[in-house]
Amino acid sequence: MNKTSDMAQIDGARPDRPTAAILVTGICGSGKSTIAQHLAHRLGAAFVEGDDHHPPENVKAMSSGTPLSDEMRAPWLDALAAAATELQAVGDVVITCSALKRRYRDRLARDLNNIVLVHLTAPRPVIEERMSAREHFMPTGLIDSQIAALELPAEDERPITIDVSGSLEDILDTLTARLRERLGEADGDPKGA
Description:
P-loop_NTPase; Rossmann fold; 5 strands; Therm_gnt_kin
């Protein structure tokens, strides 16, 4: 079964709607990777992990506690966008990326179509607890720089903002329902066929 028909069966979207690019954003520790992987599986969509597209020098910088500059982010964002665009040509794709600033989200989106921005948020103690519990190259000390750099999505970006303090299953149920509504809007049916 192809990705489009999987999405139609699982999510209720019609197979003739445009493929979607679901961009899952948020600061470090917000659960982007976990939520996006489960969401992609639930939707029958391809998954692109933003962290996998960082050049080695970016990983080294972040591992040592150095925030990335815009110049360091540019090749990463371009590589991530290229991977997502290639996959969207054949079906829906779920992409993870902190995309802290509007210009980063715009750069990612320039070659994608039917984009749905999902912004994950949680109180700082939840983020700190998650950061401490995971094995990742980004240290907990970079939370402050991520919060300082964050430009919340603007109304014209039509974000789906999800508080990720609850259980994974509840988060996924809420997100899937909101995506179903949004993707239904994309093909003229606000309730999603």
